Give the backbone structure.
Amino acid sequence: MKAHHIANDAASSLNYVEGGSIMGFLKRLRIRTQIMIAVTCILVIMLAIIFSLYTQTSKIVIKNNNQYSEDTIRKFKLGIAQKYDEISQIMLNLGFDPTVQKFMVQNDQSISYEMGKELDRKIISLKAGRKGFEDIVLIGTNGTRYSLNGGVGYVQQLESEIKNSNSVYVSGFEKFSYSNNLLTSMVFAQNMFSNNMNDGTDGVKIGYIAVIVNVASMYFDNDASNSQPGIGFYMIDRFGEVFPDTHSPDIARNISALSHEPNYKQQTTDYIGGIKGAIQIQNLDQIQASILSFVPEEALLEELTSVRTRSILIVILALILMALPFAMIINNILHPIQILVKFINSIKSGDIRDLKMNLRLEGNIEMTVVAEKLNGMLGEINNLTHKLVETTTDLLEAEIEKEKAATAYLRSQINPHFLYNTLESIKGVALDVEAHKIVDMTKALGKLFHYSIKGSGYVSLEQELNAVKSYVFLQLIRFEGRFDVTYDFTEESLNVPVMKMILQPIVENAIFHGLEPKETYGMLTISGTINENNTLVIKIADDGTGVEEDKLLEIQNKLYDNSASTSLDRSYYTESGSIGIINVHNRLRLAFGPAYGLKFESVLGKGTCITLSMPSAFNPPGGNQHV
């Protein structure tokens, strides 16, 4: 045991001697040599830090690129879904169109020729304003053929697959010649069945309809090419075909293979065409394809590599320059360092008074520079605080712009249910009454359309009331005298500027939810006046079915809720899909403040009264109240 302690003591003594010899050796070196050793160690450490920061920053750059690509792909997928829904709706509308139904089963070629002219007008009108639609093809089981731009043969190549499809058929990428240009296209097709033929053949397959779309115009910008081979976004159909064309078979094969690997991650790093890069892949289920984004790491990190090189040169240069004053180091450097450490510790302890003080270090020039830099940093903190306040102000202004955008969004909605009912009414009248009544209806509908899409966002109450009268006129015809309407407005109230389409949703609500369910004759009263507080008050009252007490309380609570002004909650929309009373209330509060808006009163079985209040004297944006 004693021998063991002796051995340990001997080893400790040896280590001490060796350590002392190293320290003694360093002490015996010239100061210049010691400084060079210190500078070398610092250089190695700083280079290691730079390379570490470069590695971490590279990961952040790639991560941010992945996030950007993910956001871009999400928007791309949303656009794909919207286009798919639009194409499906077009085929559905054409499939149930009476003219198309008759054309598909027509055996007389002369009649088919005349009907083809009518189809031309329908389809040309349908294509107007829709980018990427190259052709619409109708093929009947009895041999009837129709195409606007000669795509029958192109579609018939896919006929067996289309006929066996139970839903919307989507082809892969195909080449379609249009106007002497060979375009990459996709075919959307759906089988058609007879409907309302009045001959007992309803539900019989009569053919199919196909829509040919230009992939470049429909889903990509006009210039779908990439600045470098293999860089950008690609679509891959279910057969492995790639768009845009990469002009390299190897790259195309790599892209196709990656998109069809079942266990492939959505975000990863891999090689395409021998180039390593950031890759994201997501499925486009609706069109049975995939979207792949690829950005080479070299392109992502090109500027970062340049920054790394410059940083290394700057560090080396700085260390060389710092090595020169090290020769002038004197013994009084320790005291300024102690003062500096004490000052920093006081700041670290949280004494804010030290942030307002200037550090003074007497001694060598380096310490003076440190003091100046630290004082400059404290001053910069002050400046950053002011910038933070300015940034907060900018964020608040951005929130206000967001509120304005919400208001514009609420104004821009259209009620397709109303348009459908109106057109159905026109169709019914066309069968039962003389043509002059149809003229009156179409004039009223035309005025309403013109009013809703033209002019500024503010008009006089008289103009708004004229639009409401056109709307009510159409509804009176539709409901065939089941209710009547009276208007009672003061002369001065008619000149007050109001937001466009602010009354129509409320009147619609009164007709469809108050008067339509009523079994007896009803009355709608619309009135407006300016009260003693210079407030424009508009009342829309009906003697209809009214609202149940619990639903009334729910609506009133929503109106009184302060958060309603910014909410886009759709749970209070009317059944007809119109903007609804809640959104009208939101528009008024966003424009004029919480003191204005809607008041909702109703008694079950007796009727409903909705009161709108808004200032009677204000300058509308743009200063133009005339449509």
Q: What stands out?
A: Residues 31-95 form the longest helix (65 residues). Confidence is low (pLDDT under 50) at residues 1-19, 222-230, 564-579. Residues 423 and 442 are 9 Å apart (CA to CA). The longest strand covers residues 181-193.
